[in-house]
């Protein structure tokens, strides 16, 4: 039984991690493509249209990967988490089915038109199809986060005698206090990813001294979007999420922040430190007193309950992983704000395109927003443990009763092999597209 | 309310088999009949433009099943664990075959992705048929051994095959001679459907040849249909009862046979679209007839310990189903609009259209 749960969790974690590499770029990049297309409509300068078309190429490859890795996600609820699906399907099935109806259809119908239809439709309609693709991808983020928000903070339901969760208030699913902050934060995070991708490709073109004109455009756009989104990501949205966790999942909050002991006179904020689970303390810690209490409650000496106040079953089962995930996300977030701010100042002073060190930094920073996004999700998902539906349904009670661990191990290995192949192909094709660069119009 | 969602999901799944069916079929035809590069290119394009928006029907169908019949979704998806995951992998190979073939201009690269697209289309068509076969045949719900359930009555787990390969065994596997027959029917039907699509959408050099291919496949289908109907009687004797009790259900088999007979005239048809319509009718009629013969059961139990799964004992509660009705109607209307817009804008033969390079 134990290893059954372990393989199921591992398979879910692996496949969702791989899936989420792609939608985060899809959602953010569609915004930037719409932006380029809009600039083109306003100025009629071909450069913008070519930029939109160039990123469309990358978008298309990325989108394919998102779709093929997304379909296994949806099916896995049934294959590996049958008991969970049976008990909660009447609720999270709503949001998942709506995602299919309202966002995937929108996105995929208009994507074909956006890619192939420019000459058939004229520019205004072409812009509109691009905008609908953007809308579809953000709607899909909205519905999947509504699903996740319900698992983090269940609302609008009752539990029958046979253990089934039954919906009794549909609109509560969307007015869930967990949803809006998570959605905004998550969408901004995907804008950060795509800004870094765009800026990084720009730096690459400038550094290799080919297609410098596009390089400058990409870098500038990426830096401006990147700065705005990274700031908004930390404040207000990151902060807002943290308050939500403190309020609704206090045990997870203590673990995330690494507070082993409750401090009478307000909690310190930990900048660096390694959780030591045996001694129940942080090793080599650097912390600033009372700041956490202030950030969470706007009162310097308000008490924040530490892990000593909770029973073992109320705490997440992998505290170090949760703690590190959270601190990596927040740490990277701070780095992003710093880098983008410096880059923006240099851009303003017309020095950015000549400052090699910054160009190299931006170019190589591109994996880190992906890492921040994923560790952010690990924070949310590990923090929810040991529950599938917070406080109500244990993860161990959600797995499929008839699927054996050998089967799950087999399919897990299959997914690993297949996804390695997909990853290689993805890099190959995106690399090729970037190397070719945007083509100037030929007629 | 259950009946409404049953019908809605049936429509969505039928749409999936009709729409994605033609690009599965195109894959099968591509595998066996496309010889020169130009034909291969237009055929992959005729499928490549649309596979993604077609596959959404599957995703939406899955989501709706999850929402409306959670117990059924949980039971079937975990019970058919291995084949389902293999289907997922095949879907991946098919999609990347279509999307990546045109990315490099090396013969070897193209050959790899052509094979990936063709073989996985063929296997998917087979697997979907086998799945349908399993549903109409029924499974050992509750894993009954010697009259005792080994787990909860709504769950089961099937091995890929049972040593007897017989649908009549007490513990049939996923693959047996009955489900294989249904699988082959599915391959033949979708191959014809794909061929009709290629004729409709392209000017490939094999179009004339495809018409005789369709003719021959149709003969095979007619034989298989008779065969399957007779063994169906052995496997599930009660399958005709519904048609006797509610004679109007007869329209579904009639739809099927209209398509089947119509396709014999493939070489004389005035418009390419008629061929496509006939193969659509075959698919539509086949799926709806099978469902009508089961109704209201959606997964028969082959033991007498646990009840069959029906739309009533697997559905979500009334409130959820009725709010979903409201957004469902809105959603369906929107999808209908997108569908019309997309098909109109991308109408016509692929090779005449100027899509620009991408
Ligand atoms: C580029 C990515 C990125 C960056 C730089 C940040 N975040 Fe984040 N964060 C995410 C990407 C992300 C995410 C992946 O998007 C999450 C996971 C779930 C969600 O809704 O958003 C998330 C969740 C998330 C949560 C909820 C965790 C839970 O549900 O248990 C909190 C409290 C924060 N973030 C706080 C912050 C703070 C204070 C940041 C300060 C800089 C920050 N995040 C930067
Ligand atoms: C892209 C973002 C996401 C990432 C990176 C992510 C990550 C993870 C990880 C690492 C686990 C394993 C946790 C553990 O074993 O302790 C997990 C579990 C799970 N997550 Fe997520 N998750 C994401 C989004 C979602 C969403 C949107 C949903 C709901 C719709 C969801 C539902 C689940 C379920 C059902 C499990 C399995 C049970 C469990 O182990 O808790 N996840 N996820
Ligand atoms: C367990 C959770 C998840 C499931 C079941 C799931 C399911 C799916 C499916 C079935 C698709 C393919 C849709 C198509 O055919 O067009 C897809 C794609 C997509 N998913 Fe997920 N997904 C999950 C997690 C996430 C998360 C956490 C996000 C973002 C917040 C997300 C955003 C998207 C987007 C934007 C797409 C569009 C295609 C793309 O660009 O990748 N998904 N997902």
Automatic annotation (TrEMBL), chain A:
One of its GO terms (biological process) is aerobic electron transport chain. GO terms for cellular component: cytochrome complex; plasma membrane. One of its GO terms (molecular function) is oxidoreductase activity, acting on diphenols and related substances as donors, oxygen as acceptor. Keywords: Cell membrane, Electron transport, Heme, Iron, Membrane, Metal-binding, Oxidoreductase, Transmembrane, Transmembrane helix, Transport. The keyword Electron transport applies. The chain crosses the membrane at residues 12-34, 54-71, 91-115, 127-145, 183-205, 217-235, 324-348, 357-380, 409-430. It is found in: Cell membrane. Its EC number is 1.10.3.-. Belongs to the cytochrome ubiquinol oxidase subunit 1 family. This is Cytochrome d ubiquinol oxidase subunit I.
Automatic annotation (TrEMBL), chain B:
GO terms for biological process: aerobic electron transport chain. It is a multi-pass membrane protein. GO terms for molecular function: electron transfer activity; metal ion binding; oxidoreductase activity, acting on diphenols and related substances as donors, oxygen as acceptor. Pfam families: Cyt_bd_oxida_II. It is found in: Cell membrane. The chain crosses the membrane at residues 6-34, 80-100, 112-136, 174-192, 213-235, 247-266, 273-299, 319-341. Its main location: membrane. GO terms for cellular component: cytochrome complex; plasma membrane. Belongs to the cytochrome ubiquinol oxidase subunit 2 family. This is Cytochrome d ubiquinol oxidase subunit II. It comes from Frigoriflavimonas asaccharolytica. The lineage of its organism: Bacteria, Pseudomonadati, Bacteroidota, Flavobacteriia, Flavobacteriales.
């Amino acid at each position: 039984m134990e290893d059954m749960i372990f393989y199921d969790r591992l398979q879910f974690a692996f496949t969702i991690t791989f899936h989420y590499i792609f939608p985060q770029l899809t959602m953010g990049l569609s915004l930037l493509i719409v932006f380029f297309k809009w600039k083109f409509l306003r100025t009629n300068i071909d450069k913008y249209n070519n930029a939109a078309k160039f990123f469309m190429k990358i978008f298309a490859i990325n989108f394919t990967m998102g779709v093929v890795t997304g379909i296994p996600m949806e099916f896995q609820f049934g294959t590996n988490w049958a008991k969970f699906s049976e008990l909660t399907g009447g609720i999270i099935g709503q949001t998942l089915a709506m995602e299919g109806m309202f966002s995937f259809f929108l996105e995929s119908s208009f994507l074909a038109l956006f890619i192939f239809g420019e000459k058939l439709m004229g520019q205004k309609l072409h812009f509109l199809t691009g905008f609908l693709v953007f809308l579809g991808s953000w709607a899909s983020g909205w519905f999947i986060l509504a699903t996740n928000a319900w698992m983090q903070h269940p609302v609008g339901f009752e539990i029958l005698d046979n253990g089934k969760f039954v919906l009794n208030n549909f609109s509560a699913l969307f007015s869930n206090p967990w949803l809006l902050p998570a959605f905004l934060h998550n969408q901004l995070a995907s804008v950060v990813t795509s800004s870094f991708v765009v800026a990084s490709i720009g730096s690459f073109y400038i550094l290799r001294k080919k297609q410098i004109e596009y390089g400058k455009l990409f870098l500038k756009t990426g830096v401006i979007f990147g700065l705005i989104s990274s700031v908004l990501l930390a404040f207000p949205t990151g902060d807002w999420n943290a308050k939500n966790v403190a309020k609704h999942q206090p045990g997870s909050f203590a673990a995330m922040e690494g507070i082993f002991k409750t401090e009478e006179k307000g909690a310190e904020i930990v900048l660096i430190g390694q959780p030591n689970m045996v001694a129940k303390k942080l090793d080599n810690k650097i912390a600033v007193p009372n700041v956490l209490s202030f950030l969470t409650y706007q009162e310097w000496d308000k008490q924040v309950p530490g892990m000593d106040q909770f029973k073992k079953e109320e705490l997440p089962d992998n505290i170090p992983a949760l703690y590190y995930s959270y601190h990596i996300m927040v740490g990277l977030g701070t780095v992003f704000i710093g880098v983008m701010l410096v880059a923006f100042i240099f851009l303003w002073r017309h020095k950015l395109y000549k400052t090699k060190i910054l160009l190299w930094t931006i170019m190589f920073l591109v994996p880190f927003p992906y890492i921040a996004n994923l560790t952010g999700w690990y924070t949310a998902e590990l923090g929810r443990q040991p529950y599938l539906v917070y406080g109500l349904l244990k993860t161990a009670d959600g797995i499929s009763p008839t699927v054996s661990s050998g089967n799950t191990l087999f399919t897990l290995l299959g997914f690993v092999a297949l996804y390695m192949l997909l990853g290689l192909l993805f890099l190959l094709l995106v690399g090729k597209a970037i190397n070719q660069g945007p083509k100037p119009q030929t007629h | 309310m259950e009946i409404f969602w049953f019908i809605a999901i049936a429509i969505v799944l039928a749409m999936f088999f009709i729409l994605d069916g033609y690009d599965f079929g195109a894959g099968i035809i591509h595998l066996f009949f496309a010889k020169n590069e130009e034909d291969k290119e237009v055929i992959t394009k005729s499928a490549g433009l649309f596979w993604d928006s077609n596959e959404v029907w599957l995703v939406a169908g899955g989501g709706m099943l999850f929402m409306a019949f959670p117990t059924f979704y949980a039971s079937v998806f975990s019970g058919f664990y291995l084949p389902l995951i293999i289907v997922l992998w095949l879907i991946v190979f098919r999609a990347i075959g279509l999307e990546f073939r045109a990315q490099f201009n090396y013969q070897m690269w193209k050959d790899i992705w052509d094979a990936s697209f063709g073989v996985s289309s063929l296997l998917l068509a087979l697997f979907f048929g086998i799945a349908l076969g399993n549903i109409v045949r029924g499974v050992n719900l509750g894993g009954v051994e010697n009259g005792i359930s080994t787990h909860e009555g709504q769950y089961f787990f099937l091995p890929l095959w049972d040593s007897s390969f017989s649908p009549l065994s007490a513990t049939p596997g996923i693959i047996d001679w009955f489900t294989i027959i249904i699988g082959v029917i599915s391959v033949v039907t979708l191959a014809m459907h794909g061929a009709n699509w290629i004729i409709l959408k392209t000017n490939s050099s094999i179009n004339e040849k495809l018409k005789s291919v369709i003719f021959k496949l149709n003969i095979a289908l007619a034989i298989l249909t008779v065969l399957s109907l007779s063994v169906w009687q052995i496997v599930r004797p009660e399958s005709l009862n519904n048609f006797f009790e509610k004679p109007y259900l007869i329209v579904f088999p009639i739809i099927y046979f209209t398509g089947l007979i119509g396709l014999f005239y493939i070489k004389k048809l005035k418009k390419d679209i008629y061929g496509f319509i006939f193969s659509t009718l075959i698919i539509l009629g086949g799926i709806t007839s099978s469902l009508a013969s089961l109704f209201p059961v959606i997964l028969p139990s082959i033991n007498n310990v646990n009840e069959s799964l029906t739309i009533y004992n697997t559905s979500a509660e009334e409130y959820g189903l009725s709010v979903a009705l409201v957004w469902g109607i809105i959603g369906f209307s929107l999808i209908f609009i997108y569908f019309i817009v997309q098909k109109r804008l991308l109408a016509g033969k692929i090779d005449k259209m100027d899509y620009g390079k991408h």
